[in-house]
Amino acid sequence: MQIDLSGRTALVTGSTQGIGHAIAVGLARAGARVVVNGRGEERVAAAVRDVRAASGSDDVTGAVGDLATEEGAAAVVEAVPGPDILVNNLGIFGSAPPLEIDDAEWRRYFEVNVLSAVRLIRAYLPGMKERGWGRVIDLASDSAVVIPAEMIHYGMTKTSLLAVGRGFAKDAAGTGVTVNSVIAGPTHTGGVEGFVRELVGDELPWDEAQHEFMVKYRPQSLLQRLIEPEEIANMVVYLASPLASATTGGALRVDGGYVDSLLP
């Protein structure tokens, strides 16, 4: 299976680290012109250098802007006027006692995790439809389906993203543009690694530590290890390609079997 994205431009939001960074690398390796996004110029510039080095591609640039604001989104749209591939990866997460999450925090999570994606879809989808080709991919989470009691505000935003993706897929029906969501499971990032060490200690080698963490604290997982960011990136690269032309309006799982249901 050969994936060739030569001639396509991809914007990956929140891609200075973690899953977004891995997605940027994967798309660049497939030949796409990749635009890395973040809020700070220094971090974006560093990420651009890292993506170039990891992918072997020099066709990587940056677009600075806080997509949780209308002004930041407008700046990114001006810098990147017509991408063929939009990956809405930007997101924040954190735990909090459910009854102590105030209105401001609910709004902040919705602005960052949901409206940032809506703003860019609204800006870019018309051009994709006119050109007759485009890919919109929203990064959701297992928390969209299995709402964590300690992360209700986060889970709510990821459920909302599934609805956003399905709805805009209908708007793009018959145009050659596909809109999909990716349901990512527990993933190995720097923050999660620290969290695992807090729970299981520093004595075990990493492979054993993460296995113990998954068995004890995430027993629903059939993979019984954390997912690597590159494994999620593989699904995104596929969905961004012409090979996924018949897949739209979907919520595709890269969750290691964490969600205990047949569908999605």
Outline of the structure:
This protein is of the alpha/beta class and 264 residues long. It has helices spanning 18-29, 41-55, 70-79, 103-131, 152-171, 190-200, 206-217, 229-240, and strands at residues 9-12, 33-38, 60-64, 85-88, 134-141, 177-184, 251-254.
Mean pLDDT: 96
Cα(first) to Cα(last) distance is 24 Å
Tell me, briefly, the overall form: globular
Q: Approximately what portion of the residues adopt beta-strand conformation?
A: 5-15%
CATH fold-level label of the largest domain: Rossmann fold
How many structural domains does the protein architecture include? 2
Name of the top-level CATH class of the largest domain = Alpha Beta
> Can you tell me the CATH superfamily of the largest domain?
NAD(P)-binding Rossmann-like Domain
Estimated structural class: alpha/beta
Q: Tell me about the largest β-sheet.
A: 7 strands, parallel
CATH architecture classification of the largest domain: 3-Layer(aba) Sandwich
Name the poorly predicted regions: none
Continuous helix count:
8
- The main sheet orders its strands as 3-2-1-4-5-6-7
Question: How would you sum up this structure, described in words?
Answer:
It comes from Streptomyces cacaoi. Pfam families: adh_short_C2 (PF13561). This is Dehydrogenase. One of its GO terms (biological process) is monocarboxylic acid metabolic process. InterPro entries: NAD(P)-bd_dom_sf, Sc_DH/Rdtase_CS, SDR, SDR_fam. The chain has helices spanning 18-29, 41-55, 70-79, 103-131, 152-171, 190-200, 206-217, 229-240, and strands at 9-12, 33-38, 60-64, 85-88, 134-141, 177-184, 251-254. The mean pLDDT is 96. It folds into two domains: 9-187 and 228-249, NAD(P)-binding Rossmann-like Domain (Rossmann fold, 3-Layer(aba) Sandwich), CATH 3.40.50.720; 188-226, no CATH class. Helix content is 46%, strand content 15%. It has eight helices and seven strands. The protein is of the alpha/beta class. Helix 1 (18-29) crosses helix 2, helix 4 runs parallel beside helix 5 and helix 6 packs across helix 7 (206-217). It has a seven-stranded parallel sheet, with helices on both faces. The longest helix is centred in the middle third of the chain and has 29 residues, at 103-131.
